[in-house]
Structures are given as C-alpha cells and as structure tokens.
Amino acid sequence: MIQTAGGLLNPIRVSADILKALAARATEALAGELDGVVITVPAYFDDAQRQGTKDAARLAGLHVLRLLNEPTAAAIAYGPRLRPGRGDAVYDLGGGNL
C-alpha cells in the first residue's frame, strides 16, 4: 500500500492513475483516441508484476496490445537507425539490467 494525502492506495491503482494521465496526454497529442497500447516493463518483472501492469491498464480504460520488455523496446526504437556492416550495439543501461 502507498500512503497518499487521500489515504492508502494499492500500487495497481497508482499505476492506473499514471497510465490514465499518460493516455490523456497521448490522446491530446495525437488528436484522436487510442485503439490500443503497448506498455514496456522491466525485463526482470515476473508474471504477477506483468499481470499487475495489465490490471492497471485495464483500470485506466486502456486496451493492452502487448507488454514489451524495456531492453527489447530500446532495440526496436534504434533498429531502423542501424546500418549493416557497422557493428552497432544497442543496450539498456537501466536500474536493473544490462
């Protein structure tokens, strides 16, 4: 549980509130509704943590297309910039993995 000015909230509810705010910003920036979302999670998340993330998204009114490990998302984001034969490497130097 997380203590807030409004009382105790569970982590899924807090995550849902954050996701809802992010979705509102994305909807405004894209000038349209979101059909679905892809959410990144730390690679070390276990099944319960992944399910908690999906539950939070559901509470936020989002349709989860997929959960994607953060290092995989980093590789996908930089992949189009890589050129064959250069020997580029992509890594995620985050708080929990390398």
From TrEMBL:
The Gene Ontology terms for molecular function here are: ATP binding; ATP-dependent protein folding chaperone
Q: Which residues form the signal peptide?
A: none
**InterPro entries named in the record:** ATPase_NBD, Hsp_70_fam
Keyword Nucleotide-binding recorded: yes
Asked whether the keyword Amino-acid biosynthesis is assigned, the reply is no
Keywords (alphabetical) are: ATP-binding, Nucleotide-binding
Q: Which Pfam families match?
A: HSP70
Family per similarity comment: Belongs to the heat shock protein 70 family.
Q: What is this protein called?
A: Chaperone protein HscA
Native source organism of the sequence: Klebsiella pneumoniae
Please state the gene responsible for encoding this protein.
Answer: hscA_4
